[in-house]
């Protein structure tokens, strides 16, 4: 069995100005200084540089919440991988359900974004997950299979293990309704199996996170599941004490 370093990622969404980012990190960084897991904060674009500067003397990494697949061009309002790299950013969330739902993010675009991120040297965190009515209709497996197949279609087999995947059931995001550890484990096991149809080695190495109303009280039980390699945390990651407690639950 491959050793997979747990990863805890904070998705701040459209929250935290530069000043708020600095205040958060001043409290948070000392609290996770001894953590033996990987920790990533994902601020909005304007706060990335401040986060990179503040995290420079720590092991905490910084990721963006989206990027365009092209390096440059006539794409008003978009940001590219080279621009993120220039800021010193380490990774990027791709395909978050809020981007799929509100901003028309498609599997086709994600199939281009993932290889672009990897080629640039950014660690992508690909989000997948089913809607509530899809789960109720027994379609969860099919939805996950489809997303994994489509989104990773253009990633070479040798690079598949470098992608981080976050299983985020949409009904659990920001709702306070967490998937049970069993539901999360089953879905993540299925995702690992799908990666395994492309590369057995990648399936052993790929880190698959759970996301959806993770908090300091439920983190340990979710993270104890054999296939869950960490968490992508929204609401609870806005408070430095809560996110540090979640990091501690994984350590
Ligand atoms: C998210 O947006 O990725 C997320 C998991 O949010 P929350 O933890 O608030 O459910």
In short:
This protein has 251 residues and is α/β, with parallel strands linked by helices. 43% of the residues lie in helices and 15% in strands. The chain has an eight-stranded parallel barrel, surrounded by five helices.
Overview of this protein structure:
The chain is built from 11 helices and 8 strands. The chain has an 8-stranded parallel barrel with strand order 1-2-3-4-5-6-7-8, surrounded by 5 helices. 43% of the residues are buried. Helix 2 links the parallel strand 2 (38-42) and strand 3 (61-64). Helix content is 43%, strand content 15%. It has helices spanning 18-31, 48-55, 81-87, 97-103, 107-120, 132-136, 140-151, 181-198, 200-205, 219-223, 240-250, and strands at 7-11, 38-42, 61-64, 91-94, 123-128, 164-167, 207-211, 230-233. The longest helix has 18 residues, at 181-198. It is of the alpha/beta class and 251 residues long. The structure holds phosphoenolpyruvate. Residues 11, 168, 173-174, 211-214, 232-236 line the site of phosphoenolpyruvate.
């Amino acid at each position: 069995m491959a050793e997979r370093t747990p990863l805890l990622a904070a998705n701040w969404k459209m929250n935290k100005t530069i000043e708020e980012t600095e205040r958060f990190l001043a409290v948070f960084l000392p609290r996770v200084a001894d953590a033996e897991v990987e920790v990533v904060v994902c601020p909005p674009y304007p706060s990335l540089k401040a986060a990179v500067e503040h995290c420079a003397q720590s092991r905490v990494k910084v990721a963006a919440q989206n990027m365009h697949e092209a390096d440059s061009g006539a794409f008003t309002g978009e940001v590219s991988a080279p621009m993120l790299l220039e800021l010193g950013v380490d990774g990027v969330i791709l395909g978050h359900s809020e981007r799929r739902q509100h901003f028309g993010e498609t599997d086709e675009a994600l199939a281009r974004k993932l290889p672009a991120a990897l080629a640039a040297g950014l660690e992508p965190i690909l989000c997948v997950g089913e809607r509530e009515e899809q789960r109720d209709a027994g379609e969860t497996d099919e939805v996950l299979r489809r997303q994994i197949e489509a989104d990773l279609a253009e990633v070479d087999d040798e690079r598949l293990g470098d992608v981080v995947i976050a299983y985020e059931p949409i009904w659990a995001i920001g709702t306070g309704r967490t998937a049970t550890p069993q539901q999360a484990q089953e879905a993540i096991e299925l995702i690992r199996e799908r990666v395994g149809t492309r590369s057995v080695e990648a399936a052993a190495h790929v880190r698959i996170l759970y996301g959806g109303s993770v908090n300091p009280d439920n983190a340990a039980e979710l993270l104890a599941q054999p296939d869950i390699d960490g968490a992508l945390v929204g609401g609870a990651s806005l408070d430095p004490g809560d996110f540090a407690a979640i990091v501690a639950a994984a350590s």
